[in-house]
Design the sequence.
């Protein structure tokens, strides 16, 4: 799991360092990942892919569109705010996923509500501090926060289908749909999609290989033998690790006052993630395989 955390921690710094539009990087991240998944999918899941129903494809395509929006907003935010702030804001996905679950009729335990309140307080502190740095930093924070909301939508949509299809098929369709959606947006906006420097291409390839393929795969594998709570909490270490990489490599030094704000935000998220055991004791009745706080703990990986 340590390798997965390190791999996931490189996404923000690599995106910030790459000299390319954030949306273009998001497109290539998903396109390259989908292309890398094709041989595995054809070998393991060809009959399943051929037999997918229209509803299954619709759910997976919807999840892919939400994933595209998640990556598009979060990766674009890195042009305006620090890696530390952007990743911390995106880490709020479990909070929004829990709120979506409440809207859909699931009861949240007091511990989850406390976590939501603590996390929102952390968000308010981060945006307030970044506003004193520059208005553009605030804009970046809001983009990253929006990315967290879209990530929660991706979690929710994926939760409706993941129990019925293999990870390989789900990954291929979602990444493919995300890449297609981002390609349309990039073409419509007239963004540069090619002609980057060799160094930037190397960073884009590293983003697809490290956080997307290695990081996601190892976290998914860890879920086979490790509690989802432990895995979800482990992903929170991506934020400080990414901040340290950005400091050492890019020279990014966020204001010291933002550190307790980020800690508060992550602490609130941890409360939401761990509240699902309390939920069970209180007699919540989510459908099997549809536990919203458990789904909240499984972030849309960055």
Sequence:
């Amino acid at each position: 799991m340590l390798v997965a955390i390190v791999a996931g921690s490189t996404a923000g710094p690599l995106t910030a360092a790459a000299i390319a539009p954030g949306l273009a990087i998001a497109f290539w991240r998903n396109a390259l990942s989908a292309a890398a998944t094709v041989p595995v999918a054809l070998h393991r899941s060809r009959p399943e892919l051929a037999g997918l129903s229209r509803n299954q494809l619709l759910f997976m395509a919807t999840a892919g569109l939400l994933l595209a929006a998640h990556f598009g907003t979060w990766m674009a935010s890195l042009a305006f705010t620090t890696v530390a702030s952007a990743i911390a804001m995106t880490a709020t996905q479990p909070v929004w996923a829990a709120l979506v679950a409440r809207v859909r009729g699931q009861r949240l335990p007091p511990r989850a509500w406390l976590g939501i309140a603590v996390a929102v307080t952390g968000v308010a502190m981060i945006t307030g501090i970044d506003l004193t740095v520059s208005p553009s930093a605030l804009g970046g924070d809001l983009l990253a926060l929006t990315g967290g909301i879209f990530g929660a939508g991706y979690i929710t949509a994926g939760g409706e289908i993941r129990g019925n299809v293999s990870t390989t098929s789900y990954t291929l369709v979602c990444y493919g749909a995300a890449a297609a959606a981002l390609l349309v947006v990039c073409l419509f906006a007239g963004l540069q999609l090619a002609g980057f420097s060799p160094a930037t291409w190397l960073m884009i390839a590293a983003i697809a290989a490290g956080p997307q393929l290695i990081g996601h795969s190892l976290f998914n594998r860890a879920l086979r033998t490790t509690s989802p709570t432990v895995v979800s909490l482990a992903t929170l270490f991506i934020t400080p690790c990414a901040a340290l990489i950005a400091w050492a490599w890019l020279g990014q030094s966020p204001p010291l006052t933002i550190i307790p704000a980020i800690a508060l935000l992550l602490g609130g998220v941890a409360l939401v993630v761990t509240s699902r055991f309390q939920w069970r004791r209180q007699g919540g009745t989510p459908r099997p395989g549809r536990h919203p706080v458990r789904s909240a703990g499984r972030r849309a990986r960055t």
About this structure: The mean pLDDT is 88.
